[in-house]
Amino acid sequence: MKLIRTVAALVSVASILSACGGGSDDVGKELGLTPPEVHFIHAIPSGPNVDFYNNGKILQANLGYKTVTNFATINTGAQTFSYAAVNTTAQLASDSSINNAAKGHEYTVIALPDAGFLPSIAVIDDPFDKGLLSNSARVRGFNASANAQNLDLYLVAPGTNINTVSPTMAGVAFKNAVPATTQDSIYLSGGTYQLIATLPGSKTAVYTSASFNLGNNADWLVTTLPAGSALSQVVPNKIRLLVAQGGNTQTPAIELPDTQ
């Protein structure tokens, strides 16, 4: 009888969430019931297409620059993530920092150039601690810009004077996320926003996006990349912003246009 009551409660919660715009997959994540999931971002300008590996096996193949894959289910336990150029087996970079992938967690693996523009890798562990009845959007920032190694990000209503507000995500350092890995994302109400990037402590924008819509229940990772499509075009503090959208259906990455 206890099991029946538990299942009934979960079905009831799922129904409420569905009416609010959430999904049953989110319910499972929020309750820590679903298997861990991972997606991959290729953020190396001029980098070759790559195959993304999980524990020595190709999980997602032939991924080009600025590709953001759908979430894929992985096992719990220790994980080694890596990537190699297509049609090769020599791993360009690997990471074994996830000792115990947990149910309900989302993992993001990012291929990016290091400070010397050699292949590198970063992993974000997102515990997905969203409230059961929340329809807020989830947002996190990540700096994949070796040419802009510390940034403040402002996610504000269009036309906001950033001299009067604090950064939404402050001190986003190269190869790091804000909120940091293992911490939950920032929660915001759906609406119309723009993103502004500055150097730390400065109010002078190095990037200002056009206005865009952030929907309820959105799950965004805002990733800064060097501007230009080739490493030869990279100049200090000139960036672009790529939005990786969470989900298990085809949700292509969005590049927010720079109005500067």
Automatic annotation (TrEMBL):
InterPro entries hit by this protein: DUF4397 (IPR025510)
Entry keywords, A to Z: Lipoprotein, Signal
Domain DUF4397 residues, every copy: 37-154
Superkingdom classification of source: Bacteria
Signal peptide: 1-19
Protein name (record): Lipoprotein
UniProt source species: Caballeronia choica
